[in-house]
Amino acid sequence: MKYTVEVAHLVNGDVVSVRRLSLKRERHGALRGVVLVTAAYVAAMAGVFVIARALGRGVYAPEFFALWGAAGTAASITAYLRVSRRLRRYRLGSSLDADAFAPVEVDLVRRAGDRFDLTVVPGMHGYIDSGRSPIALEALIEGKPHTLSLDGGARAEVQVGDATFAVRSQPEEAPARPEIPRGFWRLFSRTAVFGAELALVASLFAVIPRAVTIDERAAHLRGPRMTTPWEAEKWLRIEAQSQAASLYQCFDPLPVSCQHPGYVGVGVSLTRDGEMRGNWIARSTYGNECPVDQCIRDVVSTWEFDPLPEPMRVVLPVQVLRTEKPLPKVAEAERAGPSAPTGSVP
Question: Domain residue spans in the chain?
């Protein structure tokens, strides 16, 4: 189809609107509707993903994309069909999506296959010129609707009440810019919103716990399943004792008299995720001659703990032992003490 039909709406000789119909404009307008629906669905998918991540969750990709893909495809097909059907006709009537107001509901011009048809009904008058002598519309109607084919170069003038519609068929101009009719958004917005709502509800079944790395998963599997505060406290004691070797740095600068095993009651305040909010020394077997409390607090603040069933505030008994790290030379000399003189006195 290499021609377009132009319909001009006039009232009392003044042009109110002009609309052009062609197969190319129809396809361009339908594709524009598909692009808008696709963009809206992609934005909705991204919004659901962002909200899930903000809530510390994730989505199961195969199911999530399958749901939104099916809903988006159905909405896109619906948008293409409805927009193309609307763009292929010039509608008269009293509805909001009509191209022009008229006391009759009829498609004045409509594409049917590779041609355009002009439909006239009782109450209309005017003429049509298809290259021969003009023909009065009143002679064609005869009390019932009549459809005429608009060939290339055909002209018609149709009067309905105070409105006049000038119709002409002419070669298509390039580029053919699609003209958006009234009610363009209503053609597919309701279906698109309904499909998005279904996909949004179905997405709730695709939401899964947040993904973790291999190291995080392995650490989680190594820890026991803690369901009560007592089980959590027992595991915290094991974790604290396993990290007690790092306390050696608090005793290196001290005299040899402090280089001995002992016990320290370390108080910790932990969140549900195992993060430390604070710590203190509740009791210690090291007296004032061995000032290690502040140093131990600094070291304990670097310890790590597994997630807990609930936030906890507990005192953990920790046995302090020397590691395989050798004593400083000053401490070794102090522990050896003064050596006795050997040999005979002359």
Answer: 3-206, 220-336
H helix runs in the chain, sequence order = 23-54, 61-87, 138-141, 189-203, 214-222, 229-242, 293-300, 329-336
Q: Say yes or no to pLDDT of 167 above 50.
A: yes
Q: What's the chain's Rg over C-alpha atoms?
A: 43
Backbone angles phi, psi at 8, to 5 degrees: -110, 130
CB 124 within 8 A of CB 141: yes
**Token reading at 235:** 């595991």
- pLDDT one-digit tens code per residue, 258-294: 888 888 999 999 998 889 999 999 998 888 888 888 9
The pLDDT of 160-177, averaged and rounded, is 79
Tokens 């002209």, residue located: 155
Q: Are 19 and 181 in contact (CB under 8 A)?
A: yes
Q: Which fold has domain 220-336?
A: 3.30.1150
Distances (CA, A) of 167 to 14, 90, 153: 15, 11, 10
Structure tokens at 249: 């740095």
Q: 105, 95 in Cβ contact below 8 A? A: yes
